[in-house]
Amino acid sequence: MKKIAVIDDEVQITSMIEKFLKRDGDYSVTVYNNPVSALSGLDKDTDVVLLDIMMPQMNGLDVLHKLRSTHPNTNVIMMTAYSTLDKVLEAHRQGAEDYIMKPFSSMSIITDKIKSLKK
């Protein structure tokens, strides 16, 4: 069973992703609507983090930077509705494996991205 963490300040988004992943696959899902709480509560053995870029409490790129030092083996997939090439490139430079544009064209894009990860 893959351990997935979803970090997004939008409760509707995290709830929708959590329900979909639990129904669609063999996933254990933990939801965080506050990135600061996520950084202190995230399990060391989390396989994948789905991380929003734009959050009021803390920028997703800052969260990604901290995750790389505390959870170096965790895959990170960035999520954003406000993608700019600069942010996408910066996320890749900091170690994000992929990104997903919101709104999702299909919820299966999430599981497709998770299944395509090498680790």
Topology of this structure?
Layout: E1 2-7, H1 11-24, E2 27-32, H2 35-41, E3 48-52, H3 60-70, E4 75-80, H4 85-93, E5 98-101, H5 108-116
Parallel strand pairs: 1-2, 1-3, 3-4, 4-5
What CATH calls the topology is: Rossmann fold
Please trace the helix and strand order, writing H or E for each element: EHEHEHEHEH
Total DSSP helices: 5
Rounded average pLDDT: 93
The CATH homologous superfamily is termed Response regulator
Give the distance, in angstroms, between the N- and C-terminal Cα atoms: 13 Å
Please give the largest β-sheet. Answer: 5 strands, parallel
> How many domain modules?
1
Strand content: 15-25%
Description:
Helices cover 42% and strands 23% of the residues. It is of the alpha/beta class and 119 residues long. It has a single domain, classed as 3-Layer(aba) Sandwich (Rossmann fold), CATH 3.40.50.
Keywords summarizing the entry:
single chain, alpha/beta, Rossmann fold
Short description, anyone?
The protein has 119 residues and is α/β, with parallel strands linked by helices. The chain has one domain: Response regulator (Rossmann fold), CATH 3.40.50.2300.
